[in-house]
Amino acid sequence: MITVGIETSCDDTSIAILDGEERLRANVVSSQVEHEAFGGVVPELASRAHVTNVLPVFRHALAMAGLGPESIDLIGVTHAPGLIGSLLVGGAFAQGVALALERPLVPVHHLEAHVVANLLDHPDLELPAVALIVSGGHTLLVHIPAWKRYVVVGRTRDDAAGEAFDKVAKLLGLGFPGGPEVERRARGGDPRAIPFPRPMLDRGDLDFSFSGLKTAVLQWVEGHDSRTVERHLPDLCASFQAAVVEVLAEKTARAAGRLEVPTVLLAGGVACNDVLRAEVLGRASGRRVLWPRPSLCTDNGAMIARTAVLHQEEAVSPGGFDVRASLALG
Ligand code: KG4
Ligand code: ZN
């Protein structure tokens, strides 16, 4: 079975071709550079760029897979959550493909897909699991007793972890997206140099809060002259990253312990972060900790295709398809 996965929920236009459940024949990602000058995603620019990119990306993916459109058996597309204009472009494109080829169309939840991306690299993964979903728009801890069953046990009360990385990168004058930039600079710094707070770490619940941490970085920057800030940039990045990572890893470990699961899954763009992976592993008490390769952590069509396969019995008619800016997981 050949499945096409279409992802346009934010600022990446991505289309993948999946053969069966595991064989990824193409995973094309077109990242929009339009937003760099703004230090964040501009919704209208994103929608317009998807309109321009979606057809070339589709053709490129088919060419890479060496297939024609008639080979497609199943179409999966992100329908929620995300930027509404961006979702509409991918959704309308998928409707058109489904109509023209008379193939089933599966609406995919973007956050479920981030978790399911783990199946592409670890098809033997054992449930139940706890998943830490950390992206630019979301930070969630999810209990997964079985596939298609998701119980949110913790969430951020304000900024997402990736959003905190992006905002700190912006205030330090680093590039966008900020996560990889902060991680790169942090490599030369001392994570104990500046004692930033560990928000919500002492509370018994599994929730997070990152906006205060971003403010703490801002206050430190405002309290020092620009040469000092420049000199301490690696320490600043390492200390901020250490604070975010400690809270994420510790609450993930607590969730896994309370729910007595054998497996911990990392998902979403921030799961690319090596320090986060190491810290979660270090606190996992022997549990299996898994994450997808980096290209399957950030937004991609492959995770949408794999999730469509999981939900292939739940296809809708192209006329019955709709998109949602927000939709709870589970
Ligand atoms: O999952 P994703 O591609 O898009 C959303 O669904 O939001 O995640 C993007 C986020 C951005 O905030 C980016 O800064 C962050 O993931 N990110 C990282 C790293 N790579 C990407 N954060 C920390 N460390 C990284 N290495
Ligand atoms: Zn995402």
Summarize the helices and strands and which ones pair or pack:
Elements: E1 2-7, E2 12-19, E3 23-31, H1 43-65, E4 74-80, H2 84-101, E5 105-109, H3 110-121, E6 129-134, E7 139-146, E8 149-155, H4 161-171, H5 178-186, H6 211-222, H7 226-231, H8 233-259, E9 263-267, H9 274-282, E10 288-290, H10 294-297, H11 301-310
Parallel strand pairs: 1-4, 4-5, 6-9, 9-10
Antiparallel strand pairs: 1-2, 2-3, 6-7, 7-8
Low-confidence parts lasting 5 or more residues at pLDDT below 50? none
The total number of structural domains is: 2
| Main sheet characteristics | 5 strands, mixed
How far apart the termini lie comes to 27 Å
Strand percentage lies at 15-25%
Q: What hetero molecules are bound to the protein chains? A: 5'-O-[(R)-(carboxyoxy)(hydroxy)phosphoryl]adenosine, zinc ion
Morphology: globular
CATH class of the largest domain: Alpha Beta
SS element count, helices: 11
The SS-based structural class is alpha/beta
CATH architectural type of the largest domain: 2-Layer Sandwich
Describe the structure.
With 330 residues, the protein is of the alpha/beta class. It has two domains: 2-114 and 297-314, 2-Layer Sandwich (Nucleotidyltransferase, domain 5), CATH 3.30.420.40; 126-291, ATPase, nucleotide binding domain (Nucleotidyltransferase, domain 5, 2-Layer Sandwich), CATH 3.30.420. It is built from eleven helices and ten strands. The protein has helices at residues 43-65, 84-101, 110-121, 161-171, 178-186, 211-222, 226-231, 233-259, 274-282, 294-297, 301-310, and strands spanning 2-7, 12-19, 23-31, 74-80, 105-109, 129-134, 139-146, 149-155, 263-267, 288-290. Strands 3-2-1-4-5 form a five-stranded mixed β-sheet, with helices on both faces. The chain has a five-stranded mixed β-sheet with strand order 8-7-6-9-10, with helices on both faces. α1 packs parallel to α2 (84-101), α3 packs across α11 (301-310) and α4 runs parallel beside α6 (211-222). Zinc ion binds at residues 110, 114, 135, 268, 299.
